[in-house]
Write a structure and sequence with these properties.
Radius of gyration: 17 Å
Largest sheet: 7 strands, parallel
Helix content: under 10%
Order of helices and strands: EEEEEEEEEEEEEEEEEEEEEEE
Distance between the termini: 38 Å
Strand order of the largest sheet: 1-4-7-10-13-18-21
Strand content: 35-45%
Structural class: mainly beta
Shape: globular
């Protein structure tokens, strides 16, 4: 495990940090709630050399940040309670400006609006959540989805760009054999 700027990291009771986790916590840092697991080779990174006021990563209680996840918190990432991510998820609260073709991209600056993932959400394997997005309570992001817009509560989104494919109503659709089709 590697830690940079340990004085900017707050871990509540029962937090588990697995082998190979990397926490990089420039000002506004990283806060991880009680009984949250951060699995091997996850990277939680707040690199705030531009002094963005809302930078940081805040993860609620009873969450799972799975293997090889990358969280970039320059614009701020807030994750509620009971949120699970599958392996290889990327949550990227920063983006480059690239509107001027006469200037190098690196000279055009960044945007950093932030990302919010509300309670009880599930983020599928390989999903990418881009800056400025809110994932609603109880929402599911399908494997491999690229989320560029807000996700309503209690919906399932899939695809690239992600679109709502199902509302979660408590009823399970079945085929003629009685097997779930979701």
């Amino acid at each position: 495990m590697r830690i940079r700027f340990a004085n900017n990291i707050s871990l509540e009771d029962g937090v588990y940090l697995d082998h190979g986790v990397y926490l990089h916590a420039c000002p506004n840092g990283i806060q991880i709630g009680a009984k949250t697991f951060v699995m091997h080779h996850a990277e939680l990174h707040v690199y705030n050399f531009r002094n963005i006021p809302h930078s940081g990563i805040r993860i609620g209680r009873n969450c799972l940040i799975s293997e090889f996840n990358v969280l970039r918190g320059q614009g701020g990432i807030t994750i509620g309670d009971n949120v699970y991510t599958a392996p290889l998820v990327q949550i990227l609260a920063v983006n480059h400006v690239y509107d001027d073709p006469t200037r190098p991209i690196i000279a055009q600056g960044i945007t950093a609006e932030g990302i919010v993932i509300e309670d009880d959400a599930w983020i599928g394997a390989g999903a990418i959540i881009l800056d400025g997005v809110r994932i609603g309570k109880g929402a599911v992001v399908g494997a491999g989805a690229v989320v560029t817009h807000d996700v309503p509560p209690h919906t399932v989104v899939a695809g690239s760009p992600a679109k709502v494919v199902k509302e979660i109503t408590g009823e399970t659709a079945t085929d003629t054999r009685g097997k779930s089709i979701y």
